[in-house]
Amino acid sequence: MPQYDVVIIGGGPGGYNAAIRAGQLGMKVACIEKRATLGGTCLNVGCIPSKALLHASEYYEMALKDFAGFGIDTTVKLNLPNMHKQKEAGVTALTKGVEFLLKKNKVDWIKGSGAIAGAGKVVVKAEDGSETTLDVAKAIVIATGSEPASLPGITVDQMRIVDSTGALALAEVPKTLAVIGAGIIGLELGSVWRRLGAEVTVIEFLDRITPGMDEETAKTFQRALAKQGMVFRLGTKVTAAKAGDKGVELTVEPVSGGAAETLKADYVLVCVGRRPFTEGLGLENVGIKPDKRGFIETDHGRTSAPGVWAIGDVTLGPMLAHKAEDEAVAVIELIAGKAGHVNYDVIPSVVYTFPEVAWVGKTEEELKAAGIAYKVGKFPFTANARAKVNDEAIGFVKVLADAKTDRILGAHMIGPDVGEMVAEWCVAMEFQAASEDVARTSHPHPTRSEALRQAAMNVEGWTMQA
Ligand code: FAD
Ligand code: NAI
């Protein structure tokens, strides 16, 4: 029977980072992944392909609409098959890269489906049906991730009614695309297809978009997307969907009551959240009972079963690749007897649309609900030289600082490249910085990052450039 110190089930950002860290710390490690490639949802059908299409479609729209304004006259033609090829090349390179990293760190990638057979035992079922039992000395780490949630009465056929995986691979640009759910997937992939020419209608159950995002930022975000042509139907629910050869008929109703109506679209994207994936994992063999929504509850990564840990999307918390990675490192360090820890107060979020939205820490709504007195520092990109000269002066930076101590409690940004810049707030917050620390730190000119400094100055009212 093959023997390992640590066996990790799942080869996504949670699983592969756990495997690498365990390899670095000298443990004998196996990572079980049933997909033909490593990298999980993120690399295969999530973060990476979606960002490839967002990047390419942004260039396309820029070439079509904005180049002339910069004095560049062009004739622009979309080549969708090549756009998909570029995306796939990126995915292949990165999934191969993970394979290389596992080898480099002496991790065995065991291909197949893993299930816990009992304490310290994992069975792997290969594609040909053969089974191997692994003997696990120290720890089993569950990193099986998540899958798209479904909607009652709507069947995702990946032809006309697609989930995010189908929406990343449409072979034609829809004339009309209905998106169910104004969350991150809906707005990112909705943006891709709108830029490429689709008329996009987003249907959202709530009366706001992107729940969880700071409200003021979400309102500005919705206005920006609407200006680009995205149509929003908030407070609306879809009660039925009928797919035909040429399109889909949706029945929609106001959530507050009222008459139902029919909405037609060439394609429908269902993106109403994701659910944890634990099917066939043998949790019952070690007495782990997922919560009502299927998540595995953990305490610093430990499940209720001794020697069994869980990380990433299959556990509670934001479903983000870097959260899975943070938990992976912490859990492996704890298994190795070190002081692994995740600071859940400093996990950033980014929506990779244009404008981008990025935030970290508490929202104004959360601070108000917790009764914490705070000060706001704000700065608009219309007053930022670089954004202005690049003709992308949209949005703002907002920082929230403790009214008494000036410690940064949260930062919310909408604008150009804010996804790259949010890491500055993360570092500041990890060092428990005050807003004044950022205000008095030199920032290069002319960069968009100066907007962060100006917002920090604004906490004490000494913004100099607006
Ligand atoms: P996963 O990546 O889901 O990996 C789990 C792996 O386990 C899978 O490969 C699965 O095949 C395997 N597996 C499951 N069960 C078994 C089993 N029994 N045996 C063997 N293998 C098994 N997050 C971001 O931070 N930034 C983004 O920009 C971003 N964009 C996204 C875009 C889309 C369209 C989607 C769908 C998601 C996006 N996410 C993004 C979320 C991100 O992909 C997830 O949070 C992340 O992949 C979670 O990592 P994980 O390791 O927990 O799970
Ligand atoms: P989400 O949770 O972000 O948004 C789902 C939306 O659907 C919500 O606004 C919700 O109110 C709405 N909704 C739920 N039921 C509905 C119904 N019946 N009718 C209409 N609307 C309904 O989920 P999404 O967009 O599917 O993304 C899943 C996860 O993937 C997110 O939690 C996110 O963490 C991750 N992700 C992260 C990205 C990033 O970091 N840039 C990109 C894409 C996904």
Largest sheet: 7 strands, mixed
CATH class of the largest domain: Alpha Beta
Class from helix and strand fractions: alpha/beta
Q: Detail the poorly predicted runs.
A: none
Compute the average pLDDT.
98
Q: Supply the number of helical segments.
A: 13
Tell me the radius of gyration: 24 Å
Strand-residue proportion: 25-35%
The total tally of domains equals: 3
The helix fraction, in percent, is 25-40%
Hetero groups: flavin-adenine dinucleotide, 1,4-dihydronicotinamide adenine dinucleotide
CATH fold naming of the largest domain: FAD/NAD(P)-binding domain
Structure description:
The protein is α/β, with parallel strands linked by helices. 31% of the residues lie in helices and 26% in strands. The chain contains 13 helices and 22 strands. The strands form five sheets. Strands 1, 2, 3, 4, 5, 6 and 17 form a seven-stranded mixed β-sheet that branches. It has a five-stranded parallel β-sheet with strand order 8-15-9-10-11. Strands 18-19-22-21-20 form a five-stranded antiparallel β-sheet, with helices on both faces. A hairpin with a 5-residue loop joins β21 and β22 (408-415). It is globular. The model has no long low-confidence stretch (mean pLDDT 98). Bound molecules: flavin-adenine dinucleotide (FAD) and 1,4-dihydronicotinamide adenine dinucleotide. Flavin-adenine dinucleotide binds next to α1, β2, α2, α3 and β4. The site of 1,4-dihydronicotinamide adenine dinucleotide (NAI) has 27 residues, from α6, β12 and β18.
